[in-house]
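Pilot study result, target chain (295 residues):
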Amino acid sequence: MKELLEEFLNYLSVERGLSRNTITSYRADLVSFLNYLESKGLSNIESVRRDEIRNYLMHLKDKSLSSNSISRALVAIKMFYKFLAQERFIKDDVAGILESPKLIRPLPNVLNIVEVEKLLQAPDIRDRMGMRDKAALELMYATGMRVSEIVDLPTSTLNLDVGFIKCKGKGDKERIVPIGSQAKNAIYKYMQGARPALLKNKEDSHLFLSRLGKRISRQSFWKMVKKYAKKARIKKEIAPHTLRHSFATHLLERGADLRVVQEMLGHADIATTQIYTHINKERLKLIHKQFHPRP
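Predicted structure:
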């Protein structure tokens, strides 16, 4: 079964062109599923029946996994079985008609304008790492880019003169996102005053570099955001994605068109972008409850 899994993952990479992170998620979900089957004495994929898949989903529920995680695991299993049936490794796609659990998508954490300003002002730009961190935070809030997009960003995609950046998102889809003047200035100062020193006469195309002159990792970016949130005394639970959420929410609060925000975020489905309209509604309800004389 593990050999069939490798065939499937190769198909996702070569023929479907899915990103490395997406394939890693599929691998983790399916390795867990196949290990469960082996623990039940099922070593042949043909012998697995629909009830065994349902039992696995109940097993995940018993482990207190969220409905989102269970749904994601089922999507991976269904795609795996669909591939196996198409390639005639199996006769019947027993996972095809299984339904995903109903998802309850929690509203993401969002910073208000004052909190964003405090976070962006937290890095000490007298230090080269502070200049780098300031530029990275400004860019994330200015564009709504994902962490994976920020850390993989090459300098060649920047056009500071025009004020645009070419970003490669999920599925290697490219999009053009404008950059505001404050983010442009922060990036320019970093590229002039800090990046050459971090590079240390070596070659690396990535915009944001570590102390060793190599591409900054997602883990380092996460720690950096946490550090400045603490320094800015922001009490909310915050992660790098919080700036992306704040970017989208603040645009919509000021009247931006939902389709335009969808394009800038790189969402394939506008339903994903609509979560930010729900944030606005929840905020309005909170304000009404707080200030109306008859809440």
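One observation from the pilot: Residues 167 and 252 are 21 Å apart (CA to CA). A full batch analysis is planned for the follow-on phase.
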